[in-house]
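re: ur question from yesterday

yeah so i grabbed the chain u mentioned. its 299 aa long if i counted rite. heres the sequnce exactly as i have it in my notes:
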Amino acid sequence: MSATPIFDRTLLDRRRQRVSLDPAAASARFLLANVAAELAERLSLVERHFALGIDLASHSGEMAELLRQSGKVGTLVRVERLASLVGDSLAVVADEEALPLKEGSADLVVSALSLHLTNDTPGALIQAARTLRPDGLFLAALLGGETLNELRTALLEAEAEIRGGASPRVPPFVDIRDAGALLQRAGLALPVTDQDRLTVRYDSMFGLMRDLRAMGMANPLTARSRTPTPRRLFLRAAQIYQERFADADGRVRATFDIVYLSGWKPHESQQKPLKPGSAKASLGEALADRSRVSRPPTS
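ran it thru and got these structure tokens back, copy pasting raw so excuse formatting
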């Protein structure tokens, strides 16, 4: 783990705890519900039954419920940092950065929108992979790419204009170009990564910020400014947001890029790439043969 944590995980816990007790926050769970449904759909395409599955820090319960409904998982165990988030589920209260699970104990690990908020994401993936039995499946979704880029731009420009400098307000997210390397570093075989983009529209920047607070996703950065933010900074940011990212009807766009990851714990039954030099015909010969094919005469 980094000596200087990027995320204030204790603050994140407090916010998730507060959100879990607020019935009004349920309407802001559309993002997690959307991602959980997509992960469940991807799992449905796998012709396997998983005796023991782990729902890793998906925190609001949507993912766990869909896994139970899928019929794909025999016993489901939730792993969360807060006992209050798991209710009466079979659960382990633990940090996804320090999993106390036995090596090779699970057949499936699924994580929805959590691992991008860890201070040691590569280490968290390694621990999740270590938990899997041979031929076990890891499936996850993280925020990535251009997520909240509009909000980041508006806040940075407004703060630079008003204060002459800027503090970090929107977290960094996973680049899909790095996602495959993370899976390989974790020792997972047959890695697959892809990205989906969800664009949500709001009446103004303040509607987006209300949803982010209701999701427990307000600024969790350790390096965030501790000084009170003047109201005029947010008003100016909202103006910039409106000028730069509004559609013809006046509503503004907010981008959420979802990076999906999947990989399998290595097993002898899995397909393996051919070893270098094992091909029976060379590429050079194939290209030479193609060049010798006669072409029809031109008129």
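noticed a couple things. Residues 290-296 have pLDDT under 50 and may be disordered. also Residues 9-266 form a domain with the Rossmann fold fold (CATH 3.40.50.150).
anyway ttyl
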